[in-house]
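== Sequence, C-alpha cells ==
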Amino acid sequence: MGNRPCILVSACLAGYYCKYDGSSNLVPEIKDLVARFQAIPVCPEKLGGLPVPRPPAEIQGGDGFDVLEGRARVVDKEGRDVTDAFLKGAKATAELAQTLGAKVAILKERSPSCGTRTIYNGTFSGCTRSGCGVTAALLLRQGLQLFSEETWK
C-alpha cells in the first residue's frame, strides 16, 4: 500500500456477493478502488461467521452503540438472536482496520453492521431510523472517518 492511506470498504459495495440475500450492492467506482489496490473489501457479517444467503437481520432496542454496550440485540427475520456474530464481525473488522492503519471506511448505509447514519428500525417493515450499525459504531470508537455509498464522493 506504500504511503497511500488504507480505506476499508463494505465488500458488497465492491461487487462481492455477500449481501444477506446472496447479491451485492455494487458501486462501480468503489469496485475500481479495490481493483486499483486503493481500498480493502471487508464483510463484517461474513467475518462474524454468518452464511450467504442468510435471513435479513435488524437491530432491536437501539443502534450499534447500544449493541456494543449490551443494551440492544441483532435479530434475524426468523427471530434468531445473531448479536454474537455481529459483534465478532465488528471486532474482526476493527482489528483489520488497526492492523492496516486504516483511517477511513466506506460502508453500506442502512446495514445492521455497516450503516453509518441510518439503519432499519428493527421491525422488518422497511422503515429506517437514525443510528449506525454495530461495525460502524466500533470503527467510530476507533477514530475512523466513515462514509457511505451515498456520501463518499
